[in-house]
Design a protein that fits this description.
- This protein is an alpha/beta fold.
- It has one domain (5-82, 117-176, 185-242, 271-297).
- It has seven helices and 15 strands.
- It has helices spanning 5-8, 15-26, 33-47, 153-164, 190-205, 210-213, 220-227; strands at residues 31-32, 59-66, 75-79, 91-93, 100-103, 107-110, 113-116, 119-120, 123-130, 230-235, 245-248, 260-261, 272-273, 278-284, 287-290.
- It has a four-stranded mixed sheet.
- A hairpin with a 6-residue loop joins strand 4 (91-93) and strand 5.
- Helix 4 (153-164) packs across helix 5.
């Protein structure tokens, strides 16, 4: 199903509007999960002071496949504002002699552009479906921060966790400062987890409307039972999505004698993504399918 900027955002309409749009187009009533998550994010940045610097018009929320019960991240924050890397090259050496035998051209690593509704996107946050839907506090390290809280709060923690990764200086993924003033080597320091839990408590203390986050209370099976299906925003070249790519330098230093040059593969994915590259897909327990409009509703 082709989407328009007025439907998909970045800010986009409320989940209720998106559900009505889906029903009108497909003839089925389904929950647009990525839109519902985005609605929670909008409420969070409005209520949690430290996160009010996040400009959601420059953040794209999308879905990736993550099977329930399988290992892996529940969500990931992807930075699209990383600078072009310093030039470098790949090389191979003979195992016995150590002699350089092959090398790639010199290249730089770049980030593709993503422009949605005419607005450049600086960050994307992806959610692994249906794995994220089944996340709970049981057995999770974050459980220690939520004594007495319902198990589903793990999902709200993850949403706020990914929002907190957004650097207010637009310098990539946020890293908290150590006590000595330096930055933590990891973006997941103990202080980071503690601060996210503080934000969750601040959000609840602000008195949000439970209807905004009610869908987080339910696992994947229950959501499908209640809504008849669960869809998420994806990219046309699914399962791929915008990622860093290599570009050979226009001017190449001379190669060493007797060293074979191995050409770089041309980028297989777009270097610029727009509204035309977005698609809705319905997620199932072990995969997903493209959402198509009934024939009577399709454009000629």
């Amino acid at each position: 199903m082709r989407l328009t900027a007025s439907v998909l955002g970045p800010s986009g309409p409320t989940p209720a509007v998106r559900v009505r749009h889906l029903e009108a187009i497909t003839g089925r009533s389904m929950l647009d999960y990525t839109s519902a998550i985005r609605h929670v994010m909008s409420d969070v940045v409005r209520r949690v002071g430290a996160l009010s610097v996040v400009d959601l018009d420059r953040v794209l929320v999308f879905a990736r496949l993550g099977r329930a019960g399988a290992a892996g991240a529940y969500a990931t924050c992807h930075s699209l504002n990383l600078p072009t890397s310093e030039p470098g090259y790949y090389f191979w050496r003979d195992r016995d002699t150590g002699r350089l035998t092959r090398r790639s051209p010199w290249f730089v690593m770049k980030t593709p552009h993503v422009v949605i509704g005419g607005t450049p996107v600086d960050y994307m946050i992806s959610f692994a479906l249906p794995r994220f839907c089944d996340q709970t506090l049981e057995g999770a390290r974050k459980r220690q921060h939520y004594p007495g809280y319902a198990a589903w709060v793990a999902k709200l923690d993850t949403i706020i966790h990914e929002l907190y990764h957004i650097d207010p200086a637009d310098a990539g993924i946020r890293r908290l400062a150590r006590a000595d003033g330096g930055a933590h080597r990891s973006c997941h320091s103990p202080e980071f987890y503690h601060q996210v839990a503080q934000f969750v408590r601040e959000y609840f203390a602000s008195g949000p409307d439970p209807a905004v986050y009610d869908f987080l209370r339910h696992d994947f099976a229950e959501l499908r039972r209640r809504h008849g299906g669960l869809v998420g925003l994806t990219f046309r070249n699914y399962p791929s999505y915008p990622q860093r790519y290599l570009e050979a330098l226009a001017s190449q230093p001379a190669a060493a004698a007797n060293t074979r040059l191995v050409p770089l593969e041309a980028p297989r994915q777009p270097l610029c993504y727009t509204d035309a590259d977005l698609r809705l897909r319905e997620f199932h327990a072990h995969g997903c399918t493209r959402v198509e409009a009934p024939a009577r509703n399709r454009a000629a």
